[in-house]
Specification:
Helix content is 28%, strand content 30%. It folds into 2 domains: 114 residues, Peptidoglycan synthesis regulatory factor (PBP3), Domain 2 (Sandwich); 222 residues, Beta-lactamase (3-Layer(aba) Sandwich). By secondary structure, the chain is of the alpha+beta class. The strands form 5 sheets. A 7-stranded mixed β-sheet has the order 1-15-17-18-13-12-16, with no helix packed on it. It has a 5-stranded antiparallel β-sheet with strand order 3-2-10-9-8, sandwiched between helices. A two-stranded antiparallel sheet has the order 4-5. A hairpin with a 2-residue loop joins strand 9 and strand 10. It has 9 helices and 18 strands.
């Protein structure tokens, strides 16, 4: 029997879309993305898909690879890696780049190498890790590129483990934000290293280069970068209350400008946007009549929490409706889609989120079905 009519019930106000294109603020950064960690909403976009030189921000992929080995048990923090002459020459103090000040022949714990990469941005530490994990840096780079595809990094190609300038070594700021989210999601047991302000190795004390760790009390990561081509760069994360913002920026002209721009843009994101929970997982949004069912109605529920990032000034303009057909014909399986949660904001695309049956309803037997048909005919409808 065909469904007779469409039923819609207004629930509440508030929602967001995936990204927000009109900005009331501008940035000096060449490329910029601000992303809400919880919902994945893009709050600010400026040339986010361009493959650009990422400088030392690409060390986040090297760190991810080490974390991944720790997770699968093939490495432990107490394992030691030996420093080769190649790692010392290419990444040591004589190379002119950032270094952990490792010495040839050193036996370095993985725990120390991670801090040397994350806090001190040591090129030598990256090469040591690459050589000891994969045999040589080239093989490690292949592993990095394979993992990038697995993680959905569409505009990233790695040519080394360090981020040192190379024409084929590119990442987009969007990919860096996605990678940062993966690190925070997948490795909470190691993430605290990113907020450590200093590390001492070989009696040399070096401070974390992330300017937000000193200017923003709720900043806790992730990685800076700088080369002549890339400019001053930063992949940042800050958590204020229940909200976390990830920001990536490139092309700033000085450390001071990077610090000021990071503070300005991250503060703007927290100030202008918020997350709103409209429906909780399991919330019943309607009892839908069931035709030929062992129960007369079936609850329509939300499969998951519906949390959306919304510009605070848009909150009162939003509308949310549960939209569904009735009656539904038995049998009904738990989890079967029965309708949608339709979310509308003026000027934004409508979003629809599936709503499902909260329980299984079996079909009645043959004679019960006949009786229900008679009742339906006599009453003139359902």
């Amino acid at each position: 029997m065909k469904n007779k009519y469409l039923m819609a019930s207004v629930l509440t106000a508030g929602l967001t879309v995936w990204s927000f294109c009109a900005h009331a603020i501008d940035t000096k950064a060449r490329n910029m993305i601000l992303m809400d960690y919880t919902t994945g909403a893009y709050l600010y976009e400026k040339d986010i898909a361009d493959p650009i030189p990422p400088a030392s921000m690409s060390k986040l992929m090297t760190v991810y690879m080490i974390f991944d080995k720790l997770r699968d048990g093939s490495l432990s923090l107490d394992d030691t890696f030996k420093v080769s002459e190649n790692a010392w020459r290419k990444g040591g103090a004589a190379s002119g780049g950032s270094t952990m000040f490792l010495s040839i022949g050193d036996e370095v714990k993985v725990d120390e190498l991670l801090k040397g990469i994350i806090i001190q941005s040591g090129n030598d530490a990256c090469i040591v890790a690459a050589e000891n994990i994969a045999g040589d840096e080239e093989s490690f780079v292949k592993m990095m590129n394979d993992k990038a595809k697995e993680l959905g990094l569409k505009n990233s190609t790695f040519a080394n483990a360090t981020g040192l300038p190379h024409p084929d070594h590119k990442m987009s700021v969007e990919d860096l934000a996605i990678l940062a989210k993966h690190i925070i999601d997948e490795f909470p047991q190691f993430y605290h290293i990113f907020s450590q302000r200093e590390f001492v190795y070989n009696k040399i004390r070096q401070g974390n280069r992330n300017p937000l760790l000193y200017s923003m009390p709720y900043a806790d990561g992730l990685k800076t970068g700088h080369t002549d081509e890339a400019g001053y760069c930063l992949t940042a994360s800050a958590k204020k209350g229940d909200r976390r913002i990830i920001g990536v920026m490139t092309g700033l002209t000085s450390n001071k400008e990077r610090s000021e721009e990071a503070d300005k843009m991250m503060s703007w994101a927290f100030r202008e946007y918020d997350n709103y929970k409209f429906v909780k997982k399991g919330d019943k949004l309607a009892d839908i009549p069931v035709l030929y069912g062992t129960d007369k109605t079936v609850p329509m529920v939300a499969q998951d929490d519906v949390v959306k990032t919304l510009k605070k000034s848009d909150y009162n303009q939003a509308s949310v409706k549960a939209v569904y057909n009735k009656p539904v014909v038995a049998p009904v399986q738990m989890g079967q889609q029965l309708g949608v949660l339709r979310i509308d904001i003026p000027g934004k695309a409508t979003e629809e989120i599936p709503l499902v049956a909260g329980q299984t309803i079996n079909k009645v037997g043959f004679f019960s079905k006949i009786a229900l048909n008679v009742k339906y005919l006599l009453s003139g409808g359902w």
